[in-house]
Structure formats: structure tokens, C-alpha cells
Write a structure and sequence with these properties.
Layout (H helix, E strand, L loop, with lengths): L1 H4 L3 H43 L1 H6 L5 H105 L17 H7 L10 H23 L6 H15 L15 H5 L42
């Protein structure tokens, strides 16, 4: 048992004393039973001696005076022996009661100590279980808060990237729909394309397929319009030259996009405002191609001047 392993040496010594006392009590009881048997035998012999049949039967050669003297001596010896046995029985009974009282006191203390130890262990276990539950709940709450903050940060970053792309194309930037510090709702995230709708199980696959289709359509339109896609190094170099010449931040008021005139330099076809880019999100949070030819800044279409 786990409780017996934690008992101090004092209790072990008491336990050994209790075992010794129990053994001694067993021996004393055996001796009492043996003495009672001897007393019964002596009583039987006294009955036979008092009747005189045995002596008269086997000791016919002894005279009456010798017989009476021997009988008196035997009776006196038996009386003394009976008194001694009674005294020993009384002493053994007293000792047995003392042993029982001592054993009762020891077992009472042992039960009290075992109960207090078990109660302490159970209280300690409950305390640590409560601490574990509290720490787990705190970790879950912190992880949920961190996930919500990351989702909000991704939403704001996506909005800023779209605003930067629109400013690069010469379009006016749209204000942030969500105020700072307010968490974005799931409906807004679905409308922006940052979170999958609950009804669609293959939202990621549909999104990748739609993006691939839009990229292929964009490449085909560029090839038809005669606009070659510039490399990232060329775009970076043009951005640096444009910022160095204008000396104003990217996407500010009055800033011109370095890619606005690419259509005029690349071929005979020109555009009044270049190519306009929109997010790949249609109305109602659905992906789809942008509408063609619905005015300035809508979809990937022609500007005011058209194709000349």
C-alpha cells in the first residue's frame, strides 16, 4: 500500500511491538487452556482420592493412619496448587486486558494518522488538478486570442496590399472597412476572401482553380493587347526610379504609377489609365472574373480612350 510506505520508523516500531504482544497473548491463551486441562485432571483425581476407592483398592497394605496422613498432604498440596492457578489466571486476565487497551490506543492513533495522511494526499491531488485545469483553460484562451489577432492582422494586411496594388495602377484607394482594434467578423472575412464560407467544404481547391483560371485569362488578354509582362527585377527598378524622381511615398495623392505608360511604350495600342486590377472577389463573397468594360477601375478592361 502507498500509505504503509510513508509510515515513519516510530509507527513501524509500534507495529512490531503489537505483533510481539499478539504472539505473547496467543501463548498465554494456550497456557491457560493447558492449565485448565490440568486443573480438570486434578479435580478428577481429587474426586477419586476423596472417595477412597482407588487408595483402598490399590493400597490395602497401608495402614489407616498412613493413608489419612497421605490423603491430607495430597489435599493440602492440591489446595495450594489450585490457589496458585487461580492467582495466575487473575494475573493473566489483568495482563490481557492491559494488552487489549494498549492495542486499542495504538490502533486508534494509527487510524488517525492514516486518515490525516490520506486526506492530505487527496487535498494535494485536487489542488494540482485544479491548477492544471486553470493552466489549460488559460492556454486555450490565449491561443484563441492569438488566432483572432492573427486573423485580424491578415485581413488588414490583405486590405493594405490591395490598396497598394490599386495605387500602383493609379486608382483611388478605398478606406479600411474595419476600424482599428475591432475584430473582423466571419462574414467580412468571407467577403474579402480571407476565410472559407461554412457551406463550402472545398473552398481552398475552388479558390486555387479560380486563381489559375484568372491568371490564364489575364495572360491571354495581355497577349491579345500586346502587353508583355515585366520581370520582378524590372518592376523593382522602375519603382525605385519613380520614387527617386517624385520623392513621395508610394500610393500618395498625386503620385503616378510607373506602369501607367507601359501600354504606350510597348506597342501601337495605348490606354488612358493602363490596366486596372481588382481583388479576385466578386459580389457576395464569391470568386469570379471581373466584369469587362464597365467603366474606369472595374475589372480588367479598357479605359476611357479605348484601344487605338
Amino acid at each position: 500500500m502507498a500509505v504503509l510506505d510513508e509510515i515513519d520508523p516510530e509507527l513501524m516500531r509500534l507495529w512490531s511491538l503489537i505483533s510481539e504482544l499478539s504472539d505473547q497473548l496467543t501463548q498465554n491463551r494456550q497456557q491457560v487452556v493447558h492449565l485448565q486441562q490440568q486443573a480438570d485432571q486434578v479435580k478428577g483425581q481429587a474426586v477419586h482420592c476423596g472417595s477412597g476407592f482407588a487408595l483402598r483398592r490399590w493400597n490395602t497394605d497401608i495402614s489407616k493412619e498412613v493413608f489419612e496422613s497421605e490423603l491430607e498432604r495430597m489435599n493440602a498440596h492440591l489446595v495450594v496448587e489450585n490457589q496458585t492457578l487461580n492467582h495466575e489466571n487473575k494475573q493473566l486476565n489483568i495482563l490481557l486486558k492491559e494488552y487489549e487497551q494498549a492495542l486499542d490506543v495504538i490502533m486508534t492513533k494509527f487510524r488517525t494518522h492514516a486518515h490525516s495522511t490520506q486526506t492530505h494526499d487527496l487535498a494535494l491531488t485536487r489542488h494540482y488538478e485544479a491548477l492544471l485545469l486553470t493552466s489549460q483553460s488559460a492556454l486555450m484562451n490565449s491561443s484563441l486570442q492569438t488566432s483572432a489577432q492573427q486573423t485580424e492582422s491578415l485581413a488588414r494586411l490583405s486590405h493594405l496590399l490591395r490598396a497598394a496594388l490599386r495605387s500602383l495602377q493609379g486608382e483611388p484607394g478605398s478606406p479600411d472597412p474595419s476600424p482599428p482594434g475591432s475584430p473582423s467578423s466571419p462574414e467580412k472575412l468571407v467577403a474579402r476572401g480571407l476565410a472559407p464560407p461554412e457551406e463550402s467544404g472545398d473552398w481552398n481547391l475552388d479558390r486555387e482553380v479560380e486563381l489559375a483560371r484568372l491568371e490564364a485569362e489575364n495572360s491571354m488578354l495581355r497577349s491579345l493587347l500586346g502587353i508583355a509582362e515585366s520581370s520582378p527585377e524590372e518592376r523593382r527598378r522602375l519603382l525605385e526610379d519613380w520614387e527617386r524622381e517624385n520623392e513621395r511615398p508610394l500610393g500618395g495623392q498625386g503620385a503616378m504609377s510607373p506602369f501607367a505608360g507601359m501600354g504606350k511604350r510597348r506597342g501601337p495600342r495605348t490606354f488612358s489609365r493602363g490596366m486596372a486590377m481588382q481583388p479576385f472577389v466578386g459580389g457576395g463573397g464569391q470568386f469570379g472574373p471581373p466584369p469587362m468594360g464597365q467603366g474606369r477601375g472595374q475589372g480588367m478592361g479598357m479605359g476611357e480612350g479605348g484601344m487605338r
